[in-house]
Structures are given as structure tokens and as C-alpha cells.
Amino acid sequence: MTRLRIAVQSKGRLSEGGMDLLKRCGLRFAYGRDKLHQSAENMPVDLMLVRDDDIPNFVASGACDYGIVGENVLKEEQLAGRRAKELEVALRLGFATCTLKLAAPKGGEITSIQDLAGKAIATSYPAITDAYLRERGVVSEIVEMHGSVEVAPRLNIAAAICDLVSSGATLEANGLGAFETVLNSEAVMIRPAQNRDPAKDEIASILMRRAQGVIASAQTKYIMMNAPVDRLEAIKALLPGAEAPTVAQIAGRDDVVALHAVCRERVFWETLEALEAEGARAILVLPIEKMLA
Ligand code: PRT
Ligand code: ZN
After folding, report:
1. Is the sign of the CA dihedral 148, 154, 158, 161 positive or negative?
2. Cα-flanking dihedrals φ and ψ of residue 151, to 5°?
3. Residue 86, exposed/middle/buried by CB under 10 A (0-12, 13-18, 19+)?
4. Are residues 170 and 106 in the same domain?
5. Is 124 within the bounds of a domain?
6. Ligand 1 pocket, 173 CB below 6 A?
7. Distance (Å, rounded) from C-alpha 112 to C-alpha 138?
8. Are residues 213 and 249 in the same domain?
9. For residue 185, what are the CA distances in angstroms to 41, 76, 95, 279, 290?
10. Are residues 180 and 106 in the same domain?
11. Per-residue confidence in pLDDT tens, the chain, 293 aa
């Protein structure tokens, strides 16, 4: 029987998020994970656990059908002219978000990309960095490093760096300031753009439809409250990303109704306080576990 093979990072920032997403999509894996393979017990899906940098090539070569990888790695492989050019993004997964940024020592002479002309830039993403600068007419020397890129300026290996940033703590700790965003990235599901096996695509489409529900429900909340009838319109207007809330009678009351709504955007404390100020009471915000839109 046909089985879908997905490449997932074996350990690192993409592995936990990737495995978690697949499990939330209903895949169950047997205990006793072998080093390279894992098979779902309840769906025709196998995982291949590898280094993230190898994932585009594994999918492009047909060793795997789909893969979960950061857009930064996909783009690097595509620009470096390897087989990854024939890949496409099937679904954006909404985790492992980060930004590839150019940064240089704070208070130093480099504050914009023009200052990088003729200078050395350390990065793990040489193809992306080079293409970005060339498109802007800046010619620099790219120094390829794999790991601890942030120490390069201090060691005089390079004048600036181009590295991934999430919280910004690493740049801060190394006295570096970012001055240009090169790429925004998140985890994506990739596949070959052409010549896919329709039977495998069918399995993948079930999985991706579930994944869309998981991703959407992670940001979505169910909100319930008692609302004064005369403030109903003002209260509805405060609900973030809610479509047509449900309004229900409360037994024995004609001044207050029960209001239920699905909010497709984050619900902050400020929103709850604003609702309360409009007279809403007994406000509950509940997580949504699964959702089919
Ligand atoms: O062994 P393998 O090659 O599989 O793992 P890896 O070391 O290449 O990958 P890993 O697990 O570090 O990252 C995998 C993917 O996670 C990356 O390709 C990105 O798509 C994504 N990601 C998201 C990040 C970050 N956030 C991130 N902050 N990858 C790396 N970082 C590093 C960054 O390089 C820098 O050193 O974290 C540091 C900065 O973090 P802050 O929070 O201090 O800004
Ligand atoms: Zn890697």
C-alpha cells in the first residue's frame, strides 16, 4: 500500500514543532523511535528524521515526498542552485518564525547596507546574503560559517554578520545591532512542484487540511460572556476577528444575554478589560482544540 514519506528534522528547533503538529493532526507513532525512521500506526505516513539542511535535497531527489523545513533553508538551497529549485511550499506552518538580519557592532561604522561594500560578512546563508546585496548593488565578501556567527566581528573574521534572529538576545549579548531585514521565515511544508504521485498527494492533502485546522485553532479562542442587551453592539465590535457571535437568552433575565463567539485573533487582557468596561460579566476565554473551517 502507498505510504507518504515526510522528512522532518531529527533534533532542533523544527523537530519538536514538526512532531507536535503531526501528532495534533492525529498521527500516532509507536514508542522506540529508531534513529532514522518512524512509522505512523494509524495512517500510511512514515517520517524520515534528518538534518534540516538535507531536507530540500531529500524531497527534490524523491527520497522523501514532503518535508518540513525553515523557509531560510529552502531559499538558501534554491539560490545556491541545487535541486531544491524544483520545490514548492505546500503549506506555511506558523512555527519556528524568525528573521534573517544583517547586523554589525553597535556604535561602529556600519549602519546600512551601503557601508558593507568591500567588507566581509559572516553568515550560514551565503547564497541568500550574496543575492540580497547584489540586487542592491553592494559587493561584499561572504565568509561562510556554520554556527556561532555572532562572534565573527569580535574575532575580526568579518565586519558584519547575516544571521537568524528570534528574540534578539544573541545579538544583544554580542554587542551587535541589526540594521536590515533580509528574509522573514517560518517552518513550511515543501514538496516537488511537479510529477508527484497522486495517491501520495491524497494522503498529504488529508494531513494538510488537518494541519490548517490545527494552525488556525492555535490562534483562535472561544469567548463567552454575559452582556447587557443595551451594550450588545458595542461589545460585539470589541471582539477580535469574530464572525457573527451567537446570542442566547438567559432564563429569567431580559436585560442580559449570553454571548458566544469564535475569535480568530489573539484575545489580550486589554480586550477583556474593555469588554468589562462595557458591562460584560462572567467572561470566559477557552482554547479551541480542533477546528474544521
Ligand atoms: O542539526 P541541524 O542542521 O538539523 O540543526 P540546525 O542547528 O541547523 O538548526 P536549528 O534547530 O538551530 O534551527 C532550525 C531552524 O529553526 C532554522 O533553519 C530556522 O528556520 C528556525 N529558527 C527559528 C532558528 C531560530 N529561530 C533561531 N533563533 N534557527 C536558529 N536560530 C539561532 C540563530 O542562528 C542565532 O544563533 O538562534 C540564535 C538567535 O536567537 P535569539 O533568540 O537570541 O535572537
Ligand atoms: Zn541545519
Report:
1. positive
2. -90, -10
3. middle
4. yes
5. yes
6. no
7. 11
8. no
9. 32, 12, 9, 42, 25
10. yes
11. 899 999 999 999 999 999 999 999 999 998 655 778 999 999 999 999 999 999 999 999 999 999 999 999 999 999 997 788 899 999 999 999 999 999 999 999 999 999 999 999 999 999 999 999 999 999 999 999 999 999 999 999 999 999 999 999 999 999 999 999 999 999 999 999 999 999 999 999 999 999 999 998 887 899 999 999 999 999 999 998 888 899 999 999 999 999 999 998 778 899 999 999 999 999 999 998 888 76
Regarding the beta carbon of 123 and ligand 1, being less than 6 Å apart is answered no
Ligand 1 pocket residue status of 96, Cβ below 6 Å: yes
State the cell numbers at 45.
505516513
Burial class (CB in 10 A: 0-12, 13-18, 19+), 31: exposed
Q: Name the domain count of the chain.
A: 3
Q: Is 170 near ligand 1, meaning CB less than 6 Å away?
A: yes
Other Cβ atoms within 10 Å of 32 Cβ, number: 6
157-211: per-residue pLDDT in tens? 999 999 999 999 999 999 999 999 999 999 999 999 999 999 999 999 999 999 9
Residues 72 and 179 in one domain: no
At residue 41, the 3 state secondary structure works out as coil
| CATH code of residue 84 | 3.40.190.10
Residue entry with cell 546600512: 112
Residue 115: Cβ-neighbour burial (10 angstroms; 0-12, 13-18, 19+):
middle
d(C-alpha 30, C-alpha 44), whole Å: 13
What is the extent of the structural domain holding 192? Answer: 4-94+187-217
Amino acid type, 235: I
Residue nearest to atom 13 of ligand 1 (CA): 13
Residue nearest to atom 33 of ligand 1 (CA): 164
